[in-house]
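Field notebook, page 543. I keep forgetting to write these up properly, so this time I am using the form the group agreed on. The chain and the ligand, cobalt (II) ion, are recorded exactly as supplied. Prediction of the bound pose follows.
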Amino acid sequence: MKINLIETQPIAGQKPGTSGLRKKVPQFQAPHYLENFIQSIFNALPERVGSTLVLGGDGRYFNREASDIVIRMAAANGFGRVIVGQSGILSTPAASNLIRQRKTLGGIILSASHNPGGPQGDFGIKFNAANGGPAPESLTDAIFAETQKLTTYAIADLGPIDLDKIGITAFEGFTLEVTDSVEAYQALMQTLFDFDAIRALFASGFTLRFDALSAVTGPYALRIFEGLLGAAPGSVVNGVPLSDFGGHHPDPNPVNCHDLYDLAMSDAAPDLCAASDGDGDRNLIIGRGLFVTPSDSLAVLAANARLAPAYKGGLAGIARSMPTSAAADRVAEKRGLAMFETPTGWKFFGNLLDAGKVTICGEESAGTGSDHVREKDGLWAVLLWLNILAVRRESVADIVKAHWREFGRNYYARHDYEEVESAAADRLMLGLRERLGSLKGYRHGPLVVSGADDFAYRDPIDGSVSAHQGVRVMFEGGGRVVFRLSGTGTAGATLRVYLEHVEAGPALLDLDNHAALADLAAAAEAIAQITRLTGRDAPSVIT
Ligand code: VG1
Ligand code: CO
């Protein structure tokens, strides 16, 4: 094998964010950009020699070219084997599963997840460690440090590599294994859920519409829902991964998935509508006539998980990201389960899952998952819903409404202000941080601030501290507004404002979500001065 050592220079800005490094495709295509970052990952892994790496991506534009480069660089950097999904495709949870099952050193996932794809869209790279989970901050910091001092990268001449054909190819001192993208993941799902019960549910006439948004979950959903579980042909739509996602925005919220949403609200609504994101780790759940907020979905899944074989012994605990509503906290409290509140991003759940402290985790951004892998998992969430529906034989709406009656309801919305000028967004956050100490007692309309802080998290397992994870403003009665800046965008800054209002009284469980949050939205504007500082008088997206 001929190894080429290529001279390079550090490239500024290769700092991983909430979930890996995300940039516009043309930036990744620029000379050395991708190679520099990959070499920096490898340099941060001194134990790589002779070890195995998993590789796969969500099929977006540049996936194939990048796969080829990563394989040749892994060979040149001493890896003994790369296990790559067929055609370079692996969903994020499927990659996490392979890392764990095959006991590899880790994996590289080529994805910008919920960000749009295509030649002018976004590309991204995540490194997952040996536990299958996103690299912890200590490792992403080490990778970033490597990017700042890089002088050379190594890449091997392997000749043409065929990623479409399943099989093993041996090179001198290096093995390439092209594996079926779905098989191992599908087998894992069969160990978790009662497939017979779900098959019986479909056989009884239950209807599903799953929108794969022309992203990575298509092949998984087709094989599992239509193939194994007997969902009617055509239940899975947009099931072929396309490099530009067929123009779909791969962030599965009711705004981007308006066709699905409209269908769910219509007379022709299937029993369950669902979607996933670019890389298959998120899930959108809409029952007939009722959108289930991801925060509620986490709470309902946690409360009912025992109905699925994998969780019949109960849960060790629940974790949610800080901006996620406290709906799951009420489940934990009533059931006597441990509850953890972590910063945004799945990497913060890894230690809790590894230590066996929690079984189910979730985020308000439509991510839910369990200890079966170390990523959020879109299809897993749909399957857990299906398993629960198969046992309870009630509608999604009835299950959610019964849940509110038992636990109370957390009205919830996220207001995103996208592509705000970075300096303005920074000024807004700085202004909030400066006022933290004086906000207590502040009144706006009927609301009174009971406390405010800048969320910091101390990992209970390794003691590491992550500060400045978002400004929280708490109100008397349990309401809350959270302000933070996105760590996944590629243009300007995105301000996220999370609104939560709690009601327990039975008469107040059926309010309009938007109306229930109106006072909080007004208070958020008054406290943060969003319009004055950003020039925006309305959010770009409300989810
Ligand atoms: C967003 C979400 C966060 C999620 C992250 C990665 O991060 O808010 O909950 O973990 O995306 O999801 P941010 O920093 O933009 O708010 V994925 O499915 O895009 O990897
Ligand atoms: Co994703």
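OBSERVATIONS:
- DSSP finds 18 helices and 27 strands in the chain.
- The longest helix spans residues 378-392.
FOLLOW-UP: compare against the apo run.
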